Amino acid sequence: MQCPVGAVQFRVSDPNVESSVTTSNMNQIPLQDEVLVLGGGVAGCAASIALARKGRVVTLIEREPTPRHKVCGEFLSGEALEDLHVLGIDVASLGAVPIDYVRLAAARRAAQAPLPFSAASLTRKALDTALVAEAIAAGVRVERGRSVQALARTSHNKWQATLDDGTTREAPTVFLATGKHDLRGHTRPEDPQRWVAYKMYFRLAPGQAAELARASELMLYPGGYGGIQPVEGGIANLCCVVQQRHLARVGYRWENFLAKMQQDCPHLAMRLSGAEPLLAKPIAVTHIPYGYIRRTSEDGLYCVGDQAAVIPSFTGDGISIALHTARCAVAAHHAAEPAPLFQAKLRSALLAQMRLAEFAADGLNNSVSRAVLPLCLRVWPGVMRVTARLTRVAQHTAVAPHAVSS
Ligand SMILES: Cc1cc2nc3c(=O)[nH]c(=O)nc-3n(C[C@H](O)[C@H](O)[C@H](O)COP(=O)(O)OP(=O)(O)OC[C@H]3O[C@@H](n4cnc5c(N)ncnc54)[C@H](O)[C@@H]3O)c2cc1C
C-alpha cells in the first residue's frame, strides 16, 4: 500500500469501510485536496488508485452509497483484463467467467468464432466493489453517497465541486469520471439516435446455460442489437440497445420489446425459453452518445471514461477505454501535461478505432448486413477476429507524454 503522507485516518461515508490516507507530518496535509476524482466507476477508481500510488492526495466522490447494478454487457476484453491486473484486481478470484467464443445471431442464422484474445465476464457490481476497495487500500479518501451538483472554476485558479448537501470540495486538479451522467456546464453532445439500453439478469434453463457456456452472443434485430453472456453465480446477463423510435413501436414497454427481440431473433427466443428473470424490472439508461470523443478540456480538468469517449457497445470495449483513458490521464497529470493538450492527444489516438467501430455498428443496424453477417462468419470466422482486433483500443495507443510527441 502506498501512503504518501502519514497518520490521519479518514472515515468514508460507508461505515463498514475505512480509508487509509495517512501522514507522518500533520503540517504537510494540504488544506485542500490535491486531486478530486468525480465518479467512482471504472475510470474514476482506476485513476484514483494510480494517482494515490504516485503519491497524490486523492478524494473520490461517488454518488451511490454502495456499488449497484449498472447497464453494461459486462464483457471484459483482453486489454481490460491487463489493466485490471495492474491495478491489483484478480477477476478470477471474484468469480469471472472466461469467455472464449463470440456467437453472432440474426434472423434464423447463428455462427460462432473463437475470440482472438482472452476475455471474461464479471458483474459490474462485483467489479466496482473490488475497485473501490482497492482505491481505499491505496490510500484514496472515498466519499460515497454524495452527488456532485456543480463544478466551477474559482477565482484563485482551483476547481470547486458543490455536493448535494451544499458543501464544497476544492482542488487544483479534477478528474471527471461521472460516466453516462453529465455535470451541468460540462455536458457532452446530444445522442441523435436516441439510444435506450436495458440490462436484465436471467437464470437460464440448464440446457440453454450449457449451450451458452463460455460464449458471448451478439444478437441483431431492427433498431439495435443485444448481447447475452454468462456472469458469475451461474446466471446470464442480457444487455441490449434500441433506438427510441423502434421502442415507440412497442409502446415503450420492456415486455413488448423483449417479445419483439425474440420474434426478430429466434436464437434469443431459444436461449430464453424456460429462463427466469432475476430482477423485478430491467435497469435502463438513455442518452448514449456513441462515437463521442471529447475534443478539449480546461486547465486542470482531465476527462476520463465515458466522459472522454463512448465506443459502440457491441465492441465490449468501453471498460477497457475507461481504464486506458484513466491510466493515460494520470500519466499526463504526473508529467505536468496540461489537460487540454492531453485531451486533444487522447482524441487523435482514439479516433481511428472509434470511427471503425461506428462504421461496424452502422453495418449491424442494416437489414442486408443482418441477413448476411452470420453467413460470412460461418464461411470465414476470421471476419469476427479481424473486427474484434480492429475495434480494440490497442495498449500501444498510448497518449502518455513519453509515448506521443505533442
Ligand atoms: C448497453 C451498454 C452495454 C455495454 N457493454 C459493455 C461491455 O460488455 N463491456 C465493456 O467493456 N463496456 C461496455 N459498455 C461500456 C461501459 O459500461 C462504459 O464504457 C464504462 O462503464 C465507463 O466507465 P466510467 O467509469 O466512465 O463510467 P461508470 O462506470 O458508469 O461510472 C461512473 C460513476 O460516476 C458516478 N456518478 C455519476 N454522476 C455523479 C455525480 N454527479 N456525482 C458523483 N458521482 C457520480 C456513477 O454513480 C458511477 O458510479 C456498455 C455500455 C452500454 C451503454
Task: Report what the structure shows.
It is a single chain. With 406 residues, this protein is of the alpha/beta class. It is 32% helix and 24% strand. It has 11 helices and 17 strands. The strands form 3 sheets. Strands 3, 4, 5, 11, 12, 13, 14, 15 and 16 form a 9-stranded mixed sheet that branches. A 5-stranded parallel sheet has the order 6-2-1-10-17. Strands 7-8-9 form a 3-stranded antiparallel sheet, with no helix packed on it. Strand 13 (224-231) and strand 14 form a beta hairpin. It is globular. The two termini are 34 Å apart. The chain binds flavin-adenine dinucleotide. Residues 38-44, 61-64, 70-75, 80, 147-148, 177-181, 183, 197, 239, 241, 288, 305-306, 313, 316-320, 322 line the site of flavin-adenine dinucleotide.
Secondary structure layout plus pairing:
Elements: E1 35-38, H1 42-53, E2 58-62, E3 75-76, H2 78-87, E4 97-106, E5 109-121, H3 124-137, E6 141-144, E7 148-153, E8 159-163, E9 168-171, E10 173-176, E11 195-203, H4 206-212, E12 215-221, E13 224-231, E14 235-243, H5 244-248, H6 254-264, H7 266-272, E15 276-277, E16 283-286, E17 301-303, H8 318-334, H9 339-364, H10 367-379, H11 382-390
Helix pairs in contact: 1-3, 1-8, 2-8, 6-7, 8-9
Bound molecules: flavin-adenine dinucleotide.
Flavin-adenine dinucleotide binds next to helix 1, strand 2, strand 14 and helix 8.
